[in-house]
Each structure stands twice: as structure tokens, then as C-alpha cells.
Specification:
By secondary structure, this protein is mainly beta. The chain has one helix at 7-14, and strands spanning 17-18, 31-33, 39-41, 49-53, 57-61, 68-77, 81-92. The strands form two sheets. A five-stranded antiparallel β-sheet has the order 1-4-5-6-7.
């Protein structure tokens, strides 16, 4: 399982983010490692894409636990050819102080 980071570290790793503008269906069918420790198949119908960042980064919610968010990067070959999706960081929003955890 990937080590979960606190909110500030996650936000710093994300960098600047914006609402999703990119057609994320491009990645449908590709697998990615998730903050839950599992591997999921990316599908815009089942994997909520929450934010888009710069340099091919985007934030998704875990399809098994929507309180767990992962920062994913599109890994490129030679800077131009898409290779795979790479997990950069994960954060459990349900573990934040003042938030009630739903089982």
C-alpha cells in the first residue's frame, strides 16, 4: 500500500489545479495503482476525476472508497508518447480533523 500523505503535502505535490477540461476517456481501459493499495482499471464512468493539474497530472477518487484520493500522472516516453498512468501521492480525506468518518 502506498503511504498516505497529509493534506498540505498532497496539495503541494499536486501543484496548481483546475476543473477538468481534458477528455479523460482517452485513458479508459488503462490500469493504475491507487492509494488504497489496489490496482484499478480507469473508466470515466466509475472513476471520478476531481481535478486536473499541469504536466499530465489529475486527481481521482478511489472507486472502492471515495474518501481516498490519488494524484495520478500520465507517464510519457520520450516526452511525447503516452506510456502509462503513475501514482504520485494519495490522501485520505476522511482522516482529516473535524470530519466524521463514514464506514
Amino acid at each position: 500500500m502506498v503511504k498516505l500523505v497529509d493534506r498540505q503535502t498532497f496539495e503541494r505535490t499536486c501543484g496548481r489545479v483546475m476543473p477538468v477540461r481534458r477528455n479523460m476517456a482517452t485513458f479508459n481501459g488503462d490500469s493504475f495503482k491507487c492509494g488504497c493499495g489496489g490496482e484499478h482499471t480507469f473508466d470515466t464512468a466509475y472513476v471520478p476525476v476531481l481535478l486536473e493539474g499541469f504536466n499530465g497530472r489529475f486527481v481521482v477518487a478511489c472507486p472502492r472508497n471515495n474518501e481516498l484520493i490519488s494524484l495520478i500522472k500520465t507517464k510519457m516516453k520520450f516526452g511525447i508518447l503516452y506510456k502509462e498512468l503513475e501514482l504520485l501521492a494519495a490522501h485520505d480525506t476522511g482522516a482529516e480533523p473535524g470530519q466524521r468518518r463514514v464506514a
